[in-house]
Structure formats: C-alpha cells, structure tokens
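Exercise 7b. Backbone tokens:
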C-alpha cells in the first residue's frame, strides 16, 4: 500500500512511491487522470479478478475503486 498525505487524481502522484508497479499501463487506461481524488493505492501481485464489483463505499473505511488488472513482467 502506498499512502500519500494529500488527495490527488494524478496517477504519477498517487503511485510515486510504488516500487513494484509499472505505472504506464495505468496511465494509458486513465490518460486524463482518475475520476476523483484518492490518497492511497493498493497493489496486489498475481491477482486475477473478473468480478462485477468495481466500487465500494464503506462507512468505516471510505471509498474504494478497483482500477484494473495489469500484466506484470
């Protein structure tokens, strides 16, 4: 998990400290940035997900959005 102090919709800022993530694939999927501001990104390796749940609003933890599955090399 990468946590930033400030909310941002800029992919470069939210994922700037992610060490094992190819950011270019995410930038191609969201060329104009994210639809709203976030302060954390969680990266899971070796995950296959094709479920229908893409967003979760949780009273205790807030809003979560699934941004996609990307190949890792």
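Sequence design result:
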């Amino acid at each position: 998990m990468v946590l930033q102090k400030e909310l941002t919709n800029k992919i470069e800022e939210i994922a700037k400290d992610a060490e094992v993530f190819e950011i270019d694939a995410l930038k191609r999927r969201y060329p104009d940035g994210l639809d709203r501001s976030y302060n954390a990104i969680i990266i899971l390796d070796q995950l296959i997900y094709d479920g229908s749940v893409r967003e979760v609003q949780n009273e205790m933890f807030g809003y979560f959005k699934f941004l996609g599955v990307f190949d890792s090399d």
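Instructor comment: Helices lie at 11-14, 23-29. The mean pLDDT is 84.
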